[in-house]
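Regression test case RT-17, inverse folding.

Input:
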């Protein structure tokens, strides 16, 4: 397989398009597609909000008759199964495209090579894999949902330089500055859902909106609340007719409480207990079953520590101010029950960003 610099360029454009769908296309993957002919782009699109139409379908609609004999660049294998719409592989065949460059195969067992094979059987040249690792990373949540029955999970915390998230009194506004908080809201907009623990609801009464100009899109709000202690008049439960709010609670929660929340328009996600706490593995599996692919966990130290201990996370965003408050304040991470350095959690630092006077460190969990 020999790819030209132009091929690589068009695949990178497709990847950029795909990322624009983060947080907006679940339960489908975020896919980008470019159609080029005679050195010109005749169609380019991403999977549209809500997951339909798919990127290939939208790009073909732009290209029209120019798609015949064209080259197609798509970040994920075109689907081969009939769902709410006909398969994209068939649409490409019917359009008469000459060649399809595919980033990575679709792990969905209904596809998983079938789309590529269908194209080849129709006489279309298929080049794959191309920049597969980067293309897979764009849809890590979709891959995890399909293969491990959980969404991609990003943990976010904001602390002082010495690792505290609040004073002993609970005061925490604001540890980081405006730029750091704005970046945090961008991360919210690029996830399907943002999750906190009931402790955050009780202490801070947050709104948890993205507050960005992104076409009115807001992530689903999820509260991990084992025993349904959240106040019914909390800010997060206002305007539930306009935004989705879910509560993850124990499956034996008080039925009257459950009814009151559902009457408010809240979706209840019941999961079993593991000891006295929610079974996190069952919880994230239920979120994947509901279609979520990307979840941002912003909860306080208790929820963050639970995800860390369970190993149920993929990215860690640590916002750090240049200030110190000293012992006695509330730490960013609780007791991990780690008693030897050999058992410590390992991470790979991928990026450092300066946000005004604050620092953002982005980590990947070490396998």
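Golden output:
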């Amino acid at each position: 397989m020999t790819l030209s610099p132009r091929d690589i360029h068009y695949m990178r454009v497709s990847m950029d398009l795909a990322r624009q769908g983060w947080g907006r296309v679940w339960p489908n993957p975020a896919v980008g597609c470019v159609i080029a002919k005679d050195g010109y782009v005749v169609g380019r699109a991403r999977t549209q909000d809500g997951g339909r139409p798919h990127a290939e379908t939208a790009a073909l609609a732009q290209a029209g008759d120019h798609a015949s004999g064209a080259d197609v660049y798509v970040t994920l294998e075109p689907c081969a199964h009939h769902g709410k719409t006909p398969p994209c592989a068939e649409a490409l065949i019917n359009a008469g495209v000459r060649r399809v460059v595919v980033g990575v195969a679709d792990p969905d067992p209904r596809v998983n090579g079938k789309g590529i094979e269908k194209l080849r059987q129709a006489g279309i040249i298929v080049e794959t894999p191309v920049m597969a690792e980067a293309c897979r990373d764009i849809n890590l949540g979709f891959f995890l949902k399909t293969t491990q029955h959980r969404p991609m999970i990003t943990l976010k915390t904001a602390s002082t330089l010495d690792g505290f998230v609040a004073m002993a009194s609970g005061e925490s506004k604001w540890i980081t500055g405006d730029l750091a908080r704005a970046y945090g809201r961008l991360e919210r907009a690029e996830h399907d859902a943002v999750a906190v623990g009931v402790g955050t609801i009780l202490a801070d009464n947050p709104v948890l909106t993205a507050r960005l100009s992104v076409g009115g899109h807001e992530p689903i709000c999820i509260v991990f609340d084992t025993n349904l202690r959240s106040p019914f008049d909390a800010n997060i439960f206002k305007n539930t007719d306009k935004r989705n709010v879910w509560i993850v609670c124990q499956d034996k929660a008080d039925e009257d409480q459950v009814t009151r929340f559902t009457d408010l328009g809240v979706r209840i996600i019941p999961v079993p207990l593991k000891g006295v706490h929610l079974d996190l593995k069952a919880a994230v599996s239920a979120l994947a079953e509901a279609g979520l692919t990307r979840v941002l966990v912003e909860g306080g130290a208790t929820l963050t520590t639970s995800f860390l201990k369970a190993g149920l996370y993929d990215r860690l965003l640590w916002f750090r101010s240049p200030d110190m408050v000293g012992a006695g304040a509330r730490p960013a991470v609780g007791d991990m029950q780690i008693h030897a350095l050999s058992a410590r959690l390992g991470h790979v630092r991928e990026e450092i960003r300066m946000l005004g006077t604050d620092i953002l460190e982005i980590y990947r969990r070490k396998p």
